[in-house]
Specification:
This protein has 244 residues and is α/β, with parallel strands linked by helices. The protein has 10 helices and 8 strands. Strand 3, helix 3 (80-86) and strand 4 form a beta-alpha-beta unit. The radius of gyration is 16 Å and the shape is globular. Bound molecules: phosphoenolpyruvate. Residues 11, 13, 165, 170-171, 202-205, 223-227 line the site of phosphoenolpyruvate.
C-alpha cells in the first residue's frame, strides 16, 4: 500500500432499480466511519435517489460516464455538471466496456476527464490490455500509452484516480497473478507525474481475493463490478482495504 488515498469503488454498470437502494443504505450503516474512501456508481437513473439515501453518510456516489460538453443537443447523454448537480462526486471514465461498446478513444476519455474536472468531479480513468495484447507481450506498452493519452492537462491526485483493469479479467472470474498486477502498478506509478494519484486494481475482485491484492505496494484500492452489487460482498472488500 502506498501513501495515496485508499478507495473502494463499486461499479453497478447497467444494474439496479430503486429497490436496490437498500444495498446502499446497508453499506452506509455498516461503515459509518470507513478507514478508506467508499464509492458507489449506480446507473444514471439512480444517482439522485442514491445521493438522497446516502446523504450525511461516508459513502460517496458517482457516475459511470459523462459527455464532454456541459449541455446541448446530445440525446441520451449526461454531462459532468448534471452528475455533480445530482449528487455525484466522482465519475468513471474510459471503462473498457465504453471503449469497446462505444468506440471511445483515449483522446475522448481525456476530454471527458477535463469536463469532469471542470465540474468539480474526480475522474476515475480506466485503462487495461486485452488478452491478445497480453499474449503478444504488449501489456506495458498498451497501458502506458493509454495512461499518457487519457489523462488531461491539470491532472492531480485531488482530481484523478487511475484504475488498471485488464479487459480479460473483467466479469470473468479470472484475475492476473499478484506478480502481473505488481508489474503493471509499479510501471504506472513510475510513469505518473503526481505520485500521490491513487491506483486501483479492477477485474474480478471478490471477498476471497481482496486481501492479497491489497497487499501489493502500489495498489491503493479496487474498482469492483459484480461484487459491489451486494452490501455484504462489497463490505467484505471494504473491510479488507481498511486493514491493508
Ligand atoms: C468493472 O466493471 O470495472 C469490474 C472490474 O467488474 P468485475 O469486478 O465484475 O470484474
Amino acid at each position: 500500500m502506498s501513501d495515496a488515498c485508499k478507495l473502494a469503488a463499486g461499479n453497478w454498470k447497467m444494474n439496479g432499480l430503486r429497490a436496490d437502494l437498500d444495498e446502499a443504505r446497508a453499506l452506509a450503516e455498516a461503515f459509518p466511519k470507513p478507514g478508506c474512501g467508499v464509492l458507489l456508481c449506480p446507473p444514471a437513473t439512480l444517482i439522485c435517489a442514491m445521493a438522497d439515501v446516502l446523504e450525511g453518510s461516508a459513502v460517496m456516489v458517482g457516475g459511470q460516464d459523462c459527455h464532454v460538453r456541459e449541455s446541448g443537443a446530445h440525446t441520451g447523454d449526461v454531462s459532468a455538471q448534471m452528475l455533480a448537480d445530482a449528487g455525484a462526486r466522482q465519475v468513471i471514465l474510459g471503462h473498457s466496456e465504453r471503449r469497446s461498446d462505444h468506440g471511445e478513444s483515449s483522446a475522448l476519455v481525456a476530454a471527458k476527464a477535463q469536463a469532469a474536472h471542470a465540474a468539480g468531479l474526480v475522474a476515475i480513468i480506466c485503462i487495461g490490455e486485452t488478452e491478445a495484447e497480453r499474449d503478444a507481450g504488449q501489456t506495458l506498452n498498451v497501458v502506458l500509452a493509454q495512461l499518457a493519452d487519457s489523462l488531461p492537462e491539470g491532472t492531480t491526485a485531488a482530481n484523478t484516480v487511475v484504475a488498471y483493469e485488464p479487459v480479460w479479467a473483467i466479469g470473468t472470474g479470472r484475475t492476473p497473478t499478484l506478480g502481473q498486477i505488481t508489474e503493471v502498478h509499479d510501471a504506472l506509478r513510475a510513469a505518473l507525474r503526481d505520485k500521490a494519484i491513487s491506483l486501483l486494481y479492477g477485474g474480478s475482485v471478490k471477498p476471497g481475493n481482496a486481501s492479497e491484492i491489497f497487499g501489493i505496494e502500489n495498489v491503493d484500492g479496487a474498482l469492483v463490478g459484480g461484487a459491489s452489487l451486494k452490501a455484504q460482498d462489497f463490505g467484505a472488500i471494504i473491510a479488507a482495504l481498511e486493514q491493508a
